[in-house]
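User: Predict structure, ligand EPZ.
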Amino acid sequence: MTKYVIHGGKPLYGEIDISGAKNAAVAIIPAALLVDGVCRIENLPQISDVTLLLRILQELGADVRTVNRTTVDVDCSHIRNARVPDELARKIRASYYLIGALLGRFGCAEVPPPGGCDFGGRPIDQHIKGFVAMGANVDVHGGYIHAKAKQGRMQGTQVYLDIVSVGATMNIMLAAALADGMTVIENAAKEPHIVDLANFLNSMGAEIMGAGTDVIKIRGVKRLSGGTYSIIPDQIEAGTYMTAVAAAGGEVLIKNVIPKHLECITAKLVEMGVEVEERDDAVLVRRTGKLTRTNIKTLPYPGFPTDMQPQIAAVLCLAEGTSVITEGVWDNRYRYVDEFRRMGAQIQVDGKIAVIEGVEKFTGARIQACDLRAGAAMVIAGLAAQGTTEIGCIRHIERGYEDIVRKLSGVGADIRVVVTPDEDKQAQVG
Ligand code: EPZ
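Assistant: Predicted complex:
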């Protein structure tokens, strides 16, 4: 078993470089399927979700060459296969983008249902509604989602999303880039990674207008050709380190960010007594005094991101007074609360609402990461805690954070990866 061992209670000082955005990368890699030529993708985060998606493209027949640590060349010109391998795709949520991309490229797709973090139900009905409106038949049998464009190619149309969905917005964009005619997505999501996917596709020859607003128009083109594209910095990785400084104290310059994307997080930290100074492509985060309570409601962008909810909860646990979190996106994103309670937190959850009574400190404990952001929040709690925290199931964290141990060690955290072979054997036996 591999775990993180953290000796907490040390403030953080120094600089952290932010990697490319996971949730942009996991859409841009499938988007390379639409391109007839070599796509050079730069600023890719080195995380297991990216490795998996690149392996899936290779299994489909793509030529994937590593240029350097953060850059790959992907050539999907010779792919003829639209059936995605089962065991790889089930490990990752973003495998659903392969449906839109393969439908766009071949007019058909066979993709296993997506995996990913468990937040209660994670339907993809809005994705399917979009594909059907664009002229596809979609059904599930034999453990696969089968989608086929009735006229051989996807047809441009108007799609009104019943719910603001990041995944459905991007998937419909992928299916529409090479479609016949114009597709209009109404009530579209506006996250920075949606703009990034549109910019990637446009840089390869697509005609997408309005990304970042709630109406996106995609005029289908005949062909996308190769080019070079650099992925935006990861808003959530940056926010995670901002909250780490807020919880543990200290002063850290968080570099290679787009401060505008962080405003929703910055505003809340400032309300809590954290100092945040914006620079051109960095933010300086300082926390020396006490933290004060606040309320948070998670919402689609530009609201406070649900992917920062567990991390900000770790900070609120240490703030004076009573704070209330309302989870506005997912049905069940409080699975980390029991683990926080082991560390001394006082949290009551009722449905989508969590009420947090601030405590003086966390105390170290043995805990398990239950999903990606919850795992990151447990690291934050461990950094601020008195004593030693051991976090298991760290594979969840490594799905989305590049080099988290090295980055935190670089600002003075006492965090190590520990492998215990005996426990590994026990786990296999059990
Ligand atoms: C993306 O998931 C992100 N994942 C999630 O980040 C993030 O939490 C979420 O967007 C919201 O920002 C990736 O980008 C890979 P949605 P996605 O479709 O696209 C409901 C992380 O930690 N819904 O915007 O799956 C859904 O149940 C991950 O990095 C439908 O009802 O989320 C939810 O309540 C975790 N029908 C809401 O919409 C649908 O067809 C938003 O989901 C689709 C969604």
